[in-house]
């Protein structure tokens, strides 16, 4: 790392903070807002509806549109880099020689206001989505599903604008969006990683 920093014209002693990646490539990106998710109408509705039923259905649709407009401001973006050179499984025993860099970095930006609990939930939900993506990709450690790498990072940021979110678990709208965007971004980035020549 020091060689890279020096080659770029900087002094290693003047670099503040921890530098974990010199070059960022193969970034997966996903964006989702609630207004993009269309509510499914029930299949097999009776074609012979009464006028009262049609009016009630119109009122329901008006309410649904108003609700969609309220939720429209909730947006989630995720950017992810995936390196699987040192995949790991949380809780598994690892030899010291396997603890070297190669990471999954995840940045999630939320257009909203989050409580402390929602921030913690966001990290948990993003981490669950990461593990789910690795399972879907068939990434394993000693025959068991990998849960990440030894140096993963998750960063959650909120704009501080829009609706207040008290929680962000998978049962919430916010948690749903976090899970979907992180999962999709990891799938994209992992596929780019796998295409790299050895």
UniProtKB/TrEMBL annotation:
Keyword Hydrolase applies: yes
Upper classification of the organism: Bacteria, Bacillati, Bacillota, Bacilli, Bacillales
Composition bias, Low complexity: 45-54
Protein's name in the database: Adenosylcobinamide amidohydrolase
Region feature Disordered, mapped onto this chain: 42-70
Alphabetized UniProt keyword annotations: Hydrolase
Pfam families in the cross-refs: CbiZ
GO molecular function: hydrolase activity
